[in-house]
Amino acid sequence: MKIKTISGTITKKGRKWFKFRFDNQKKDKDYDLEISPSIKDLKPGEHFELKVYEEWSDKGMYSKVSYHEYTDNVAANKDREKERLMNIIRDKALNEGYIFEKLVNELGPGNKYEEEIKGLRIEVLKKQFHSAKSCRTLKEIKSALHRLSYNELDAEIEAEIAKREPAEKLEQENFEKKRAIENAIHWIRYNWNESKTLYNKGIMTLEEYNCHDYDDEIAKYKAELEKYIVFMKNCEYYEQYEVGALVYRDGKAYKIISKKFISEDEGIQPWDSYRYRCENVSETEEGKIFIEKSRKRLELLDEAKKIEKRKKELISQIEKMTEKNDILAHDCEDQISLPEFEKVIDTFNVYGGGKQIGYNEEFCYYIQNNGGDGDFWGANNILTGGAGAIGYACKKEFVADSLAELKDAIKKASAIENELNAIEDELNEL
């Protein structure tokens, strides 16, 4: 209890409390003073001087102080109340094994019972040590005792931890193993029931823990997968499989027997998908033909990809070589017309873009159309019928090999495209 003499001026009078301000107070704030018999006749504006004690209401960051007149009777009553609270704290600690923290807080800091409360805390922790059920609890008790500057139980606690820890560690490992196995088989069953797919991560978990209790169940799922598969495909509006269609996956032929639309929103969105359920028909006559055609189609697509890559390399070589050995005039006021030549590459378009690569008996030509909006037409040196183009020419001998290979690659690409179209027609008929 903090006792002091204060002086100030009454600003407001209520039923139980005065509002007042201290003498020479700088802040614009009123404080509470309890109305007692000796000061009950004070009125707003009157000055007072009084011996008081402070009382704080603990509301976290909103703690509030009030003042009460101090007399010998008040002090005696306060002491009796604190002794009553302390008796309750002793009873709870010694008979029920816990510290009544709310009452400890009511006693407040700096009270005369602090050492006794510390001793009670130690006694409570000693009892908890003998009834502790886990190493974690033992370690927490040890830390709590250290905070109270008590370490006489350290040896006993450490011995008990060393005795219990191996068994607890094994028990925890068994618990985690059991939980992991239960979780794995749950998701294996869920995936199978929802989408007829195997949850491989779950199967790996069972193998990791050497669990064979579900081998027959998983073998049954795997056997059924040999006959049926389920796969998802994002919606692309223009390319969806219909029931009865054949699909080629992992070297096998499957016939779609059902499909289900999976959507989170109304309508069809690109991120939505279809789930297809398929039957393995690889051993049927139709399936064997489909596999053969599908494999051939993939081989042709791979070959076409390689040829396209080589075409780009050859075009780049010809462009660079033609520019390097260019004989045409640039930075000229008038654009020129080129003689007739055979076009090997021609991607000119009506928007002023594209390129041409070609040759005649003497020269190779590389022309970059430069007639689009935003292009710098002042760089053009070749007439095109539009805004013009930037042209380069060199002796044919500089690029003869590359031109020959490029022409051959274009012929091969055209032949592969025709063959692919034929195979696509055959696959659509199956």
Explained architecture:
By secondary structure, this protein is an alpha+beta fold. The chain has nine helices and 13 strands. The protein has helices spanning 72-96, 101-107, 114-131, 135-147, 154-195, 200-208, 215-227, 285-324, 400-429; strands spanning 3-13, 17-22, 31-34, 47-57, 64-69, 228-234, 246-249, 252-262, 273-280, 342-346, 355-359, 363-369, 389-395. The strands form three sheets. A five-stranded mixed barrel has the order 1-2-3-5-4. It has a four-stranded antiparallel β-sheet with strand order 6-9-8-7. Helix 1 (72-96) runs antiparallel to helix 2. The chain is elongated. The termini are far apart. The relative contact order is 0.05.
Per-chain topology:
Elements: E1 3-13, E2 17-22, E3 31-34, E4 47-57, E5 64-69, H1 72-96, H2 101-107, H3 114-131, H4 135-147, H5 154-195, H6 200-208, H7 215-227, E6 228-234, E7 246-249, E8 252-262, E9 273-280, H8 285-324, E10 342-346, E11 355-359, E12 363-369, E13 389-395, H9 400-429
Parallel strand pairs: 3-5
Antiparallel strand pairs: 1-2, 1-4, 2-3, 4-5, 6-9, 7-8, 8-9, 10-11, 11-12, 12-13
Helix pairs in contact: 1-2, 1-3, 3-4, 4-5, 5-6, 8-9
